[in-house]
Sequence to fold (518 residues):
Amino acid sequence: MTSSPGAAEFADSYLVEVLTEFGLALKYVRARGNTLYYLADDGTEVGVFDAASGFGSLMFGHNNPEIVEHAKWLLDQQTPVHAQFSGYSFALNLAAELNTVIRRELQTEDKFFALFGNSGAEAVEISIKHAEMDRGARIAELKAEIDTHVEQARTAVANGARVSADAAAVVGGTDFDHLAAEVARRNAQTEARPPLFLALEGGFHGKLVSSVQLTHNNEFRAPFKALAAQARFIPRDRPELIAKVVEDERSTLLDVTVQDGVVDLVERDFPIFAAFLIEPIMGEAGIFPLSAQLAGALREACDTFGVPLIADEIQSGMGRSGTFLAGTQIGLKPDYIILAKALGGGVAKLGVVLVNEHRYRKDIELIHTSTYGRDGFSSRLALKVLQMLEADDGKAYQLAAERGAKAKAMMEAIKADYPDVVKEVRGVGLMLGFELHDQSDSSSPEIREAVEHEALAFVIGGHLLRKHQIRIFSTASNLETMRFEPSIHLSDEEIARVDAGFRDICQILRDQDASRFE
Fold:
């Protein structure tokens, strides 16, 4: 069998076509630290500063020597990858270490049970399944309680109790058997309603069948809307609207009471919402950190309406913000926590959902499985990553905060010099966003056309790649915002390179001279 030269004939043909148009289609052959290398036409290696870094996956950089060495050692030790359904696994060790860190961050003694998958999007899917299983269990408990009340009322009627006029008006008669049948019929209709989820406008939680329904970007979500449970989206600056959305979707079950020989009906709230998913730092929306005030309002709302709060820390977690969880900095107290990306050290593919013991439904362990979800290699590699994060009193967290602060100060200085071009600099630690003003009214026809076709971010990315050897992309749902997520080994030279590149872009846009884009 001959090897293929790697032409985009059988995969990614359209993607390569689009990227080629902007000079972004490169085949990288080597990676180390914050640098990706491709081969120039003469065969020499060209290094590119990778500011995207696997969209937050590379906390320690590409092919970190310590992680690579540990991965080799694990393979040399013949670590079992496949030992499913054996009960004990290295994933248990990982879950224990994650609990140590998370309980410290959340300042709680609660346990968090871990469910493993292969990626962030799969971990979101697991959290959706668990939340629906929990909702189903709560519905079953409510139904059982109502059934008990119906039988108690039946006995009371046999002993002389009567159906109230109000109840008779609701069900259309005073006969108790008719009332019981009508209660069952109406409740069955309510129970057939599909679950709903809550999420924030601008949020991103993946692109799989269920997770994409919680991703606000309509371009990603709309084509698949018929496939899974739907979400109701709340503006991130209007938490008071949660109550209105919940009230608009409110459903009730009929319950039966007996008091002083009178049978009556009462309404019981039906749990229509399965969970509320949020990102402590909204990545694809444009790197928007949530405020402590909003975190508190979300927690209060979830407690009020009995809805579990899920913190999607896939991109913001694992120390990128300067603390293990970005939510720690705003006092967020979630019921579930989702981690992935950097959990595998940029080498292993691994995601995990951690569920508070007070919400956990243990039966899910028998009905949700994944062939590679808790394999020995990935679990032990993730243990190494945790050890590296925690080493030297959390030096990695300190580096993320310090290096991020220096990069952010650089961007703020550019904003001060180009207030007409730079709208805002946002983010925490090494998860930063550099937002440009909308250029749709540009005096340059070329720039206006690029904006109209949602291509200006590609033009800017291609220019930075070719002229400044910087690899950077916009966020998916805010094309004016360039995301900056390098590793903790970000150097002063790399910061200076970005400074020069961003200033070049700002000057081109100030001058409205698209001819200078390379």
The radius of gyration is 27 Å.
